[in-house]
Design brief:
globular; 2 domains; Aspartate Aminotransferase, domain 2; 4-stranded antiparallel beta sheet; single chain; Aspartate Aminotransferase, domain 1; 7-stranded mixed beta sheet
């Protein structure tokens, strides 16, 4: 190790020693590498690490099931019937809304389709849907299916907002909206999955409000990543998953937000038993009696075994505080970008915007050269116990999650990336 690299490592270790959130790192299970040491895990944007408390919480449900059977719905240590209610105040903190505006239910694309059934109301004059170019495939598929469901032309029904050289510039959006007066719904991400851009959600929502266009947000990469105030901004609806930054486990129960002004509106929605008011649910009425708030959009009773890790992850976020996590995230990505420039030079380009307010935990990297060389670099990282991910056509996504990642993790990543570049 050169003196320069030794100094860089010492800087990372000093930053970790001063980190008030450093102790959270040891409250997670870490995948181990070939040498038995922790892998360099920078993939919280795809799947967060397992909180150590998650297993105990799931085992608690299993024990109550074993000892109580069906009576666990009301007599368990944490009764199962209202189990989802424990998530609401914690989710409300993270997305910035009231407790009755957010609910843990279903999975992300199920929620997206359910809410678009309510908020996508095409007419002859307005029937198109605005999404971003390079939208996550599941979002695009859901939009396509909604257009097709309503008998609209799928190809011409999608309007794309294309990313510019500096990211998704809101200044370009008014002209796009004015050129497409047929837009009936705006569906955009809070954080774009491929590039890591944080979109200007307040400004976008303002534009939607001015044009009286309903707006929904996919917060899959934003929740637990950046602070939000969706209620204050005037967002109509939002959906999100919990297995990324919220560390709730693969395929975990997702969530949905519906602004309070829509709770008693005449919007159509699909009804299910758990959307019925809890006070009359077990009367088994023939007529649907909607629950107050967003709970009315629920379908079936919640999967308690799947919700248990969700609540554990949210409790950790509540303890750490999203504002403190955001401060550390900015410091982590700043240090990572600094080390990339110093160690890798122009061989690697950071696709994600440099301005902290325009990015979250994730840096998307492109290896300068052929797509194949980028792929070989990624495979070298994988072979040397670095966990990040590859997205076609040429992006390596790296996400130092502030709840458990360290500055030294970033140092090790850059060193192994340098080795991969030398070997490619």
């Amino acid at each position: 190790m050169t003196t320069m690299e030794h100094d860089a490592l010492a800087q990372a270790q000093a930053l970790d020693a001063a980190d008030p959130l450093a102790t959270f790192r040891d409250r997670f299970a870490w995948p181990r590498g070939r040498d038995g040491r922790r892998k360099v895990y920078l993939c919280g944007n795809s799947l967060g690490l397992q909180p150590l408390a998650a297993g105990e919480r799931v085992n608690e449900v299993l024990r109550d099931w074993a000892t109580m059977g069906v009576e666990g719905h009301f007599r368990a240590e944490r009764p199962w019937v209202p189990y989802h209610e424990a998530a609401a105040p914690l989710l409300a903190e993270l997305i910035g809304c009231a407790e009755d505006e957010v609910v843990a239910m279903n999975t992300l694309t199920i929620n997206l389709n359910l809410l678009m059934l309510s908020f996508y109301r095409p007419t002859d004059a307005r029937w198109k849907i605005l999404i971003e170019a390079d939208a996550f495939p599941s979002d695009r598929y859901a939009v396509q299916s909604q257009l097709d469901w309503h008998g609209r032309d799928v190809e011409s029904g999608i309007v794309e907002w294309t990313r510019g050289d500096g990211g998704y510039a809101v200044d370009a959006l008014p002209a796009l909206l004015d050129a497409n007066p047929e837009i009936a719904l705006i569906l955009l991400p809070g954080v774009q999955y491929l590039t890591g851009d944080v979109l200007d959600m307040p400004a976008i929502t303002t534009l939607a409000r001015e044009r009286q266009i309903p707006i929904g947000l996919d917060l899959a990469h934003a929740i637990g990543n950046v602070p939000m105030r969706v209620s204050d901004w005037g967002v109509d609806f939002a959906v999100f998953c919990t297995y990324k930054y919220l560390n709730a486990g693969p395929g975990a129960v997702a969530g949905a937000y519906v602004a309070r002004q829509h709770h008693t509106s005449d919007l159509p929605r699909l009804h299910g038993w758990w959307g019925n008011d809890a006070s009359t649910r077990f009367e088994m009425r023939d007529d649907f009696d909607p629950a107050p708030g967003v709970d009315a959009w629920q379908q079936s009773n919640p999967p308690v075994l799947g919700l248990a890790p969700v609540v554990v992850g949210l409790e950790l976020f509540h303890e750490a505080g999203i504002e403190r996590l955001r401060d550390k995230s900015i410091a982590l990505t700043g240090y990572l970008e600094q080390r990339l420039a110093a160690r890798c030079g122009d061989r690697v380009r950071v696709v994600t915007p440099a301005a902290p307010e325009q990015r979250g935990c994730q840096l998307s990297l492109a290896v300068n050269g052929s797509t194949q060389s980028g792929r070989s670099v990624f495979e070298h990282l994988d072979a040397h116990d670095v966990v990040c991910d590859w997205r076609e056509p040429n992006v390596i996504r790296v996400a130092p999650a502030p709840l458990y990642n360290s500055f030294e993790d970033c140092w090790h990543f850059v060193e192994r990336l340098h080795e991969a570049l030398e070997a490619s």
